[in-house]
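quick one, 411 residues, struct below
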Amino acid sequence: MSLDKNVSRNKLTIMKIVSIYALFGGLWIYTSDSLLVSITHNPLLISKLSVLKGFVFISLTALLLYSLIARMVSQLKTTEDSLHTTKNLYRLISENSADVIWLMDIETQYFTYVSPSVERLRGYTVEEVMRQPVELALTPESYHRIAELLPLRLKAFLAGDERARINITEIEQPCKDGSIVPTEVVTTLLTNADHTVTTILGVSRNISERKQFEKSLHQSMEQYRMLFKNNPMPLWVYDRKTLAFLDVNDAAVHRYGYSAEEFRSMTLKDIRPAEEIPKLLKSVSHDKQLMRETGIWKHRKKDGTLIDVEITVHDIDYYGVPARLVLAEDVTAWKQAEEALQESAEKMRLLIEGNRDFFFYTQDTNATITYISPSIEKITGYSVDQWIGQKHWFASDSPINDFAREKTRLH
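---
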């Protein structure tokens, strides 16, 4: 129970006692005097009865006051015990909390209470901190920042903005060994009965581990950004829901001809030929997977040129947006070379298989025939299947090879 509530309750109890006493006294005087007049008109008897009435009144009111005051004392004792229990509970919490709990006088800017955990946080004892003004409890940069913001906060609170009562901020505090510890501080403005801010209640927490994690995370993100930006292969990130480009690297800008800003105003459909868009929409509808290859696609550059690209995707979370990281390898030259090789191979096949006067063959390192042209059947009388798997005629005694050797000798 708060102190203000206790005071209000005690005032109410006193008012009850006064009201009951006044009511009882008024009723006694009125009823007792009327009763005396109805009993006798003898002045001497009335005088004696009035004295007796006074003694009775004193006795009854004494008993009434005793009863009321005894009840009030009991309530006060209960309240005092409750306050004592609450105080001990608060002390137990503050003295065993890893966070530092403190009170600061708004006018003097000195601490009026600091929990023992301050020694673990900064190395200073409670007594040493209590002798320090708040200026020495903060680094110069943190103090100047707080000194600028506190008056604005107080002004907003006094103007009726209850949001200004509680504030969370990060500051740096000097330690006894000369080091600096980062802390997160939650402060609450405390007021008196006149709604005047008199004290600041604060809870300070060591956030060194959080800051180290944030630093490591920032470094990791910077490394990722560097690897992403400077990768020689085109990379981009797109929104899985809207298919909009979220980020692209320099290689993608160079390869496709669009600027980074142009890419961010586009979707995947803008770099695809119209006939491939249905296939694209079907492909991107796959559930989330770690990594997969989606095959070779046709992409359209800014100048209208179509290129063949092999796509590999990896699902990621991009600042809270479900996204995909895409690596696009340009395989246009490879496909053209492959097609040219296939065309050349086809021409060679037609040349070899169309010649009836000569035959061509290939063999492995063991002198075994692996290919022989169809003209061999006309020249030797043996089919292609009979020749495949045979040893070179200079390396075996097969009847077929005897025939080949004879033909070779005659020619």
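The chain has a mean pLDDT of 81.
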